Amino acid sequence: MKRLIVFLGAICLWLMGMSVHAQCAAKNEAIQPGERLTYELKFNWKFIWVSAGEAKMDLLPVTYEGKPCYQTTLYSVSNKTVDMFFRMRDTLTCITTERLEPLYFRKGAEEGSRYTVDEVKFSYEDGKCIVDQHRWRKGAKTIYAKDTLDYCVFDMLSILLQARSFDPTDYKKGDKILFPMATGREVEQQTLIYRGKENFKAENGVKYRCLVFSLVEYDKNKKEKEVITFYVTDDKNHLPVRLDLYLNFGSAKAFLQTIEGNRHPLTSIVN
C-alpha cells in the first residue's frame, strides 16, 4: 500500500518549469480550506477484487510559526479483513504557506509489523531550498540528511497541492517529466508520463473526463516499469478519481467515493 502514498507525489506533472532559483511558492487556483476527499481501497486477490479499506484527505487553515498556513492530512486505513494479513495505518501531514510553499511534512506509517516515521522541514535562504529530513524506524538506526539546493523540492502532499493549480493544456501524449521529491531520507528523482485523456465511469455511475498519467521506474537496463496509473478530473479541480497500483504481490485500486468543499464545479462530469 506504500504505492498509494507515492501517487500523491507523482501528480506533479504540472510542476515542470518550477525548479529554477527555488522560487517555490505558487498561485492557488484549485483548492480551498474545507475540502475533503474519501477513497475506497481494493486489492486483487486470486482474480477477485475485494474491499481493503479507505483513505481520507482534508485541508484546513492553521497557524504555523505565527503565520496563517494550510494543513493537509491524508489517512489510509485497512479494514478488519485485511488487518488479518497486512495491517495498515498511515497518516501523512504537510503544512504549506497560503501560496502552497512547503514548510513541514510528516509521515507515520504502520505497515504490517513495521512502523516508520519520516519527517522533513523546509526553509529558504538566498534563493536556495534547504531540506532537513530524517527517517526513524523501529529497531533500526535513524537516518539523517540535509541538502541545500538551487531548485525546489517537495514532499508527497505539497507537490499534489501545487500541481492541481497548473494548466496541462499544452501537454502532449507521451511527455516525460522528471521531478525531485523528499522521502524522509533523501531527495529522489522521479519520472512521470502523460498518457492522454480518457473517460472513467465510477462505481456510483458518474462518468468523468480525465487526464491519465503514469509514474514509472527504470531498471538497470533502462527498461520501463509501470508503478501507478492515475486519473484526474479534466477541470479546474484536478481531483484524483481513480488509481491503479502495481505492487510486488499483485495489484490494488483506489476509487474516489465522496467530494466535499471542492472549489470549482465538476465540469469534467460527462452527461
Reconstruct the topology from this structure.
Elements: H1 2-10, E1 36-45, E2 48-64, E3 67-78, H2 80-83, E4 88-97, E5 102-111, E6 114-125, E7 128-137, E8 143-149, H3 158-163, E9 176-182, E10 187-201, E11 207-218, E12 224-233, E13 240-247, E14 250-260
Antiparallel strand pairs: 1-2, 1-14, 2-3, 3-4, 4-5, 5-6, 6-7, 7-8, 9-10, 10-11, 11-12, 12-13, 13-14
Describe the fold and architecture.
By secondary structure, the protein is mainly β. It has one domain. The chain has a 14-stranded antiparallel β-sheet. The longest helix is centred in the N-terminal third of the chain and has 9 residues. The relative contact order is 0.21.
Strand order of the largest sheet: 8-7-6-5-4-3-2-1-14-13-12-11-10-9
Low-confidence stretches: 1-5, 7-21
Q: Would you list the SSEs in sequence order as H and E?
A: HEEEHEEEEEHEEEEEE
> How many separate helices?
3
* Separation, N- and C-terminal Cα atoms: 33 Å
Q: Approximately what portion of the residues adopt beta-strand conformation? A: over 45%
Characterize the main sheet: 14 strands, antiparallel
